Amino acid sequence: MPSLLVISSAPAALVDGKPFLDRKFVDGMRFYTDLWDGPVNCLLRVRTGSFPFGRVYEPGELPFGVRFLPAGGKPGGQDLAGHDVVLCSGDNHDYLHLAGMCRRSGQKLVYIIEYIPETRRQIIFLDGALSLPKKIRSLVWTLGQEVRRRKAFGLADGLQANGYPAFAAYESVNANVVMYLDNRMGSDLLATGSEMEARCRRILDGAPLRLVHSGRLERMKGSQDLIPIAARLVAMGIDFELDIFGSGSLEADLRRDIAAHGLNDRVRLNGVVDFETELVPFARRHADIYLSCHRQSDPSCTYLESMGCGLAVAGYANRMWAALCQEARAGWAVPLGKVEAMSGVLAEAAADRQRLVECCDAAWAFAGAHAFEHEFGRRIEHLRRLA
C-alpha cells in the first residue's frame, strides 16, 4: 500500500500537547485519506499560539498522521523516510531542496504552486512597512528563489497548479502538470434550485442590488476601494446594499468612511463569521453580486465559492479573475484599481437585469462543475498514477 506524505504550509500549533489545525486543511486531508489507497501523513511547521479558523483535535480524531517541524526547520531525509509519494508546497522556498533529495531516493515528488512571480512582486511593493531599499533587496532575493523554484519543478515528478495564472507560468517547466481550482464549495454547499429561482425573481422585479464582499480587510486585498465604490453608486442613483464580512487593519477606516459618506443604511460591516454555517447561507439567500477589489493574481478561493452560492462576480481584472471571468462568463472584469469602472459595471448590472440573472446562472453552473470533491478527485488521481 503506497504511503502519501503531504508537506503543507498550512498553519499549525500545539495547544496543551494537542494539534491545533486549520479546519479547511483538515477537511482537505480527510479527502486524501478517503481517496488514497494507503496510509496518509502530513508534515507541518509548528507556530506559537492559536490562529483564526482552527481548533484543537483530540488523539484518534484525525484519520491521518500529523508530524511537526520546529519553527524555522526544514524537512530532511528522516521526515520523508517510509513514504512513497510526497506532495509539497512549491510556494515555500524552504521545501525546494526536496526535489533533489527525492530524485536521489527514488521517491515520487509532486509540488503544488499557487503564486506567480508577478504576484510575489506585487506583495513586496504593496508592503507599506518596507522601505524602498528593503523592497529592492526583497525583490532580488525573490528572483533568486524563482530560479531555484523552476529548477526544482523541473526535477519533480509532477506539478499541481492552482488556477490559470500558475498553470500558464509553469506548464512548460514540467511535463506532468495538472491545473485545478481550489475552493471549499462541496456539492452540498451549492445554492439550491429554489434559491436560484428566488434570486432571479427578485432581480427581475427590480429590487435593490445586493452586493457582498468577504475577506481580510487589508490594502493588499483592495479593501480601501469598497467605500469609494459605494459612494459613487449613491451619486449615480443606484439602489443597492453592501454587506462586508471579515476583519483587518482597515476595519476602523471603513467604519469611519461609511459614517462620513452617510452610508450606514446601505453598507454593513459584519465581522468574521463561520464559512459554512453563516457566510454561505447568507450569500445564497441575501446577495446577488460578489464585489472583488483584489489586485493580485493569486487563485483566491473566494471566486469559486461565491459563484457556487449563485453570485455573479464584479472584480478587478487580475490574471486569475480575468481568465476565470472569460471561461465562466460569470460577471465583469474591470481594470485594476479603477473605482469608476467598477461602479460603472455595477450600474450596468442594475440596468440590465436579464444579463445579471444570466451571469448568476453561469456562475452557479461553473462552480458546480468544479465543486471541491471534483477538483480534489482529479488531484488524487494525478498522484495515484505516480504511485
TrEMBL record:
PANTHER family tied to this protein = GLYCOSYLTRANSFERASE (PTHR12526)
- What residue stretches are annotated with the Glycosyl transferase family domain? 209-355
> What's the protein name?
Glycosyltransferase
